């Protein structure tokens, strides 16, 4: 008696699809595994595309992590590139495939089907959008076109200041282009809270990038062959080349036509094992809707890391259903580097928490990425958000010149473990002068959060305009004179003189203490509070008024 | 009515003591805080001392984080340097102080007392130990002496290959000395498992350091004014300068004389709030015994990070006892860099687990510290240990050329959160090509651990000598010929040919698969296992036989 081999069909051959195929083969030598890919490439490094355009990754072949041939040789897969899945017959458990080059169609039967169609870059229906000089970036072919177009271009406009937009800006500056960046919001990196994007904003300006924040693309015009971007503000921006990086749309036509359920924002619905409402059809990657780890609500996280792990998890559930564990919720951890600055987040931002009406508290702390006395210490800024009802961490954002990824990863792990701000303050992180500080900035964020919760310090995020409030600049007079606080009526009393000079302040009037980084002002606020003042400390300090590239000499142990 | 101010006396003015004093002042403006320090300096950066000797930190003043004057000015402390606490009168709640310069003594009363005496470097009573050319390193004065002696020395012997020993070796090589390193164990970095120290060993050899592992110092001899180290093996080692870095002894004479309880290894006993058996006396830093986070058993962790947090926690418990939280147990997270290599650990090592008779399992994984296709990817090796009874992580060790601190910190946080190997595999860490991989090595360690637990792969740590076992080298023939597996009777069948060549192997005989990094051999072992073989995969691969500085081109997605 021969048994029919188990038939696994996977639609989409990049991150999620290729991971599902590879893991499936390691769990079954006998399964017939077919990998369907519309494009010519499988399992390519899509996160690396900007770096080949800019020349940081010189070898194009490095991005083609696998080819159909290597997948066949190593994993015994039936790889069909240039092939589109055009319909799913769920009743008969088969997919209709079209060989794009010749148009031939056929049905392929499955026992289990995996949909990993990904997402396509948005191309809003704007006037002039079809100009060939307007690019998006998803495939190796897009990359080749962009790289070739960039060679002849001098002025480049990038539309959208998200992660990919910033990566492209960086690479075009490397190529010595004149670069303009247009963003609808009045900040870079829309997922982050604005104060956490200012260091990156400074960095782009320093590198000569022309920023159009709080403005939107309205259309494209051609005059005498020259392309220009028309902005909502009325401004016009000449460009030889435009890159649209304004988000992605999940590719769900196939799923929708097959009657699979979509979520409120059009992503394919999944359970904790990544099954659709048809239990023989799984889905993974940029097209799907997952569960938010913090709230349990629907979330979409179109990122490479989750896609890879999802693909693998699907194979586990297909071949080892009894042992498979449900996937945890998503945090949306993400990071980007542009020039010397990195910025990223994990979990919820303040703007999301506020919009959702969830209770939260937040602190922002400044420090150096390793011991200040050891050469090469670079500034880093960390914002922490937590739930005041149970002290658990809800999210964090970090930006700086080094060590940003480490702090995000530690806090992502802390959220996964359900840790509180007290736990964060006590984390035992690796310390030697080249790597960290005896009290790492993660500990410091925990300390500051606990101080805030306990009422030992009352943070304020901007200086109040109320003339009744005494603004006390507690920096040394030399610094206070060189970089004055941009606010009227500021009194300069350095921390070291505060106890002796406390009589100069009016204990009946509220006070706000100010310093460069938010640490000395906290120390000063403690003194004033213990002297009976109603006092707040400017959280995160005046960072914007000092050059963040000067490692801060921190004044106290 | 005037109330007597609260009197806090702190013995020891460096990490733990200075942190206690600073936090105490922020919680109370009215307390009378006295900081007693035997040496001339307070709050100096003791972890930075080696780097000033080697010239990496050029400015000595950078190490004097605070002076008695700055502490007085900022924190209104009564700082008494050059003053030794010689006795505690617990009944009367007072300490006897001796001003060392003049010998004058006085009693000082306390409401609460903090002991932060630290630990002193061991100087074993060996023949010739009193030679002035034999140094230890604890204070700024030790540093000055060593730096000055180094200027005139050509041959330097460092005794002890722990964290400080390796830092000193690195700095002496920077100074272009001829450096010899003697270590009792047959490995560097005694807290780590030996395989995790080999990369560092290679690095030291590459830098010309002469290693004497598995040998011990027996004494010192002088002939014609020349100093030599006599080793247990009989070897003799000429040296112009010797640094002893063979461990520290807690300074507990004062505590012991006062009847405070000591633990089995002579450290001062504490409760979870760092109180001694006298509830008015707290203690922190290198002299104390804490609780191990994993086992709850007594532990000593003489490191800067815990000392700083402990000092702070004591002030919290003194001034805010109702709100103070008990300290979590200790993990002993530690890291060291020497030249291009970093190595460190968190939690329990395999040797400790084995010695304690605790159940554990372990895997070792190789990867690059960020996406392999992005320039600058550096190899990193990660060993994970977990408890098979509940899948919780017990410890980890990492070594590599970049990103070691990040992985240790993520796993330290995971242990603090009680995470399992399944949780580790699903951590959502920040990913962009310059920072990590879509499946970070931490995820990979989780995947591999789960595979091991689930019986999907059976790891083996060394190649068996049993001729009945088929050793299958699954690397490409070119690599297999260039760097042959150092073992008789090895069969080379590259992964890509394994399915077609499986008939060349005997399914009745056990097999072990081998590759460079342990990944391809795992893939091969999956194939053979699914073909009915009893097969194991060499965990971590043949790393020692390939140059770890060549970023590994990993063969599969």
Structure explained in plain terms:
Chains A, B: Pfam families: Pyr_redox_2, Pyr_redox_dim, Rhodanese. 2 copies of one chain form a homodimer. The first copy, chain A, folds into 4 domains: 7-119 and 250-319, FAD/NAD(P)-binding domain (3-Layer(bba) Sandwich); 134-246, FAD/NAD(P)-binding domain (3-Layer(bba) Sandwich); 340-453, 3-Layer(bba) Sandwich (FAD/NAD(P)-binding domain); 459-545, Rhodanese-like domain (Oxidized Rhodanese, domain 1). The first copy, chain A, starts with 6 loop residues before the first strand and ends in a 19-residue tail after the last strand. Chain A has 557 residues and is α/β, with parallel strands linked by helices. In chain A, α1 packs parallel to α8. The first copy, chain A, is globular and about 95 Å long. The interface between A and B is large, with 102 and 102 residues.
Strand arrangement within the widest β-sheet of chain A reads 3-2-1-7-18
Shape of chain A: globular
Helix content of chain A: 25-40%
Assembly classification: homodimer
N-end to C-end Cα span of chain A: 77 Å
By CATH, the superfamily of the largest domain in chain A comes out as FAD/NAD(P)-binding domain
Sequence stretches where pLDDT stays below 50 over 5 or more residues of chain A: 544-557
Number of helices of chain A: 15
Strand residue percentage of chain A: 15-25%
The largest chain-to-chain contact, stated as pair and per-chain residue counts, equals: A-B, 102 and 102 residues
Structural class of chain A: alpha/beta
**Total strands of chain A:** 30
Radius of gyration of chain A: 27 Å
CATH class of the largest domain in chain A: Alpha Beta
If you consult CATH, what is the topology of the largest domain in chain A? FAD/NAD(P)-binding domain
CATH architecture type of the largest domain in chain A:
3-Layer(bba) Sandwich
Largest sheet of chain A: 5 strands, parallel
Domains of chain A (count):
4
Average the pLDDT over all residues of chain A and give the rounded result.
94
GO molecular function, one term (chains A, B): peroxidase activity
Keywords (chains A, B): FAD, Flavoprotein, Oxidoreductase, Peroxidase, Redox-active center
Family (chains A, B): Belongs to the class-III pyridine nucleotide-disulfide oxidoreductase family.
Protein name (chains A, B): NADH peroxidase
């Amino acid at each position: 008696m021969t048994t029919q081999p188990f038939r696994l069909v996977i639609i989409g051959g990049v991150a999620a699809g290729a991971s599902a195929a590879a893991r499936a083969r390691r769990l079954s030598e006998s399964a017939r595994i077919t990998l369907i890919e519309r494009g010519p490439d499988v399992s390519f490094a899509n996160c690396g595309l900007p770096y080949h355009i800019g020349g940081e990754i010189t070898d194009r072949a490095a991005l083609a992590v696998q080819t159909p041939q290597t997948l066949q040789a190593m994993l015994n897969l039936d790889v069909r590139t240039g092939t589109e899945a055009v319909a799913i017959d769920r009743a008969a458990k088969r997919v209709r495939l079209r060989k794009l080059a010749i148009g031939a169609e056929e049905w392929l039967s499955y026992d289990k089907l995996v949909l990993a169609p990904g997402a396509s870059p948005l191309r809003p229906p704007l006037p002039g959008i079809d100009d060939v000089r307007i690019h998006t970036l998803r495939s190796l072919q897009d990359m080749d076109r962009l790289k070739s177009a960039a060679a002849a271009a001098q002025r480049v406009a990038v539309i959208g200041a998200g992660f990919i937009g910033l990566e492209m800006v960086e690479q075009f500056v490397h190529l010595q282009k004149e670069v303009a960046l247009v963003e609808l919001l009045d900040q870079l990196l829309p997922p982050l809270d604005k104060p956490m994007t200012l260091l990156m904003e400074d960095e782009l300006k320093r590198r000569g990038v022309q920023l159009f924040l709080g403005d939107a693309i309205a259309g494209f015009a051609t005059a005498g062959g020259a392309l220009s971007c028309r902005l909502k503000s009325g401004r016009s921006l000449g460009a030889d080349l435009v890159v649209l990086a304004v988000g992605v749309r999940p590719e769900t036509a196939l799923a929708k036509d097959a009657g699979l359920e979509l979520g409120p924002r059009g992503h394919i619905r999944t359970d904790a094992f990544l099954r659709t409402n048809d239990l023989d059809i799984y889905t993974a990657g940029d097209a799907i809707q997952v569960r938010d780890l913090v709230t349990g609500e629907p979330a979409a996280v179109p990122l490479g890391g989750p896609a890879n792990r999802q693909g693998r998890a699907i194979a586990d559930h297909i071949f080892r259903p009894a042992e498979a564990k449900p996937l945890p919720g998503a945090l949306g951890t993400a990071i980007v580097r542009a020039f010397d600055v990195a910025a990223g987040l994990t979990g919820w931002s303040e703007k999301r928490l506020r919009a959702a009406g969830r209770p939260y508290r937040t602190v922002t702390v400044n420090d150096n990425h390793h011991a200040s006395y050891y050469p090469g210490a670079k500034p880093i800024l960390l914002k922490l958000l937590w739930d005041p009802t149970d002290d658990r961490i809800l999210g964090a954002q970090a930006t700086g010149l080094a060590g940003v990824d480490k702090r995000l990863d530690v806090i992502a792990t802390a959220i996964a473990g359900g840790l509180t701000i007290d736990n964060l303050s006590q984390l035992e992180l690796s310390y030697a002068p080249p790597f960290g500080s005896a009290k790492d900035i993660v500990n410091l964020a925990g300390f500051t959060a606990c101080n805030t919760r306990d009422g030992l310090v009352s943070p304020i995020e901007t200086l109040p305009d109320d003339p009744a409030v005494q603004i006390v600049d507690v920096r040394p007079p030399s610094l206070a004179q060189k970089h004055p606080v941009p606010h009227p009526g500021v009194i300069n009393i350095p921390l070291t003189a505060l106890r002796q000079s406390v009589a100069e302040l009016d204990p009946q009037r509220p006070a706000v203490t100010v310093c460069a980084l938010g640490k000395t002002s906290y120390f000063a606020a403690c003194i004033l509070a213990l002297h009976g003042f109603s006092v707040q400390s400017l959280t995160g300090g005046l960072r914007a008024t000092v050059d963040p590239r000067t490692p801060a000499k921190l004044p106290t142990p």
